Amino acid sequence: MTTELEYTPFELMAVAGARELKDGEIVAVGLGLPMIASFLAKRTHAPNITILFELGVVDPEPVHTGVGLADPRVWYRAKILSSFVDMLGTVLHRGLVDVGFLGGLETDAYGNLNTTLIGDPQGKYRHFTGSGGANDLASSANRTIIIIRHEARKVSEAVAFITSPGYLRGEGEREAAGLRGGPSRVITDKAILDFDPTSKHMRLESIHPGTTLEDVLATTGFKPILPEHIPTTAPPTSEQVRLIREEIDPEGMYAG
Amino acid sequence: MGDPFTGDDWLVLKPLVPDVAVIQVQVADSEGNAVIFGPRWENEEQAKASKRTIIITERLVDTETIRRSPEQVVIPGFRVSHVVHLPFAAHPTSVYHAYDYDEDHIRQYAEVSRTPEGCQEYLDEYVYGVKDHWGYLELVGGVKHLNDLTADPILGY
What we know:
The complex is a heterodimer of chains A (256) and B (157).
Chain A: H1 9-19, E1 26-28, H2 33-43, E2 50-53, E3 57-58, E4 80-81, H3 84-92, E5 99-102, E6 106-107, E7 113-114, E8 117-119, E9 125-127, H4 134-140, E10 143-147, H5 173-176, E11 183-187, E12 191-195, E13 202-207, H6 213-218, H7 238-248
Chain B: E1 20-29, E2 34-35, H1 43-49, E3 52-61, H2 63-68, E4 73-75, E5 82-85, H3 103-112, H4 116-128, H5 133-139, H6 142-149
Parallel strand pairs in B: 1-3, 3-5
Antiparallel strand pairs in B: 1-2, 2-4
């Protein structure tokens, strides 16, 4: 008899994020899930990725959990400590960042992200702290991966404000705006979505184990494109779960 | 705006020119030649873009010390208008390779600052209630506490 491996939705998302990274790529990450996903990839199939924090930190190897990117705990054993202008100006804008991880308050069907405000920009609204370097990454990384909780108000029909451009209103718009790359995947706690190569509309790629199509559709603010066959997202391996729990995030601060 | 080389159309943003930049560093001399250990964030650009730049330094060293490793200077003294020598000036936040953040104090501040009254009490006690910076450092725990926060030379925090 086999016992089924237990894992949290966060761990599944981190593993899904790690799978997106290819060996040798340059990856711009923020705190939390993107960092776990990148460190996991580096310890498994992609030992030669380069991990960047936008404030000027390259390839750190933290031994303690930090509370933010400003916490020196997450800079420990970095190969380079430089600056925002170096990372965003000379690395990202030069086209050297292969992958950027992005989060947000909400995304629409074209991967446009809002991290600025909730409400009506012309009327009553509440401001948030975005974008930091997110707009730079969304505009100039060769591809981006969006990480977001799956709720209809977050994976939404329309965003109140475009902080970080996805495919704008669809086919051809991003190129016309002179932007590089674009979102390649959306990883949520229920599913993984990608984008139709032509229309650039979000398309359901796989559904996480234990979640149904009905549940995904009920919690998505628009109708994603549904391919004929929608597989179940591959669960984490026991080794991946062990690495996250014992080595990458032993205090369970991010993946708990 | 048209790019004079390619003719491409570009959006042009006006640069920010702050009246004053206040930059915390680990080491500076009295001219303001300043060394920053660790990531420089946008401190260098802030200092260089501003009309006036105030350097707050943990350690004030002789210019002779600066001359021995000039490649470490990030902000040149000729762009600096004022130098303030004030150890533990960033408390309760941290300065890389100098001291760690004071987690308990930040928690306490986060708790009391939820209400305007709590915030006022905090200001009355820690800002208006002390004679100067040294009085503040005594109030938050004094020499023993600050020694506990001092950064490990390998970890930097």
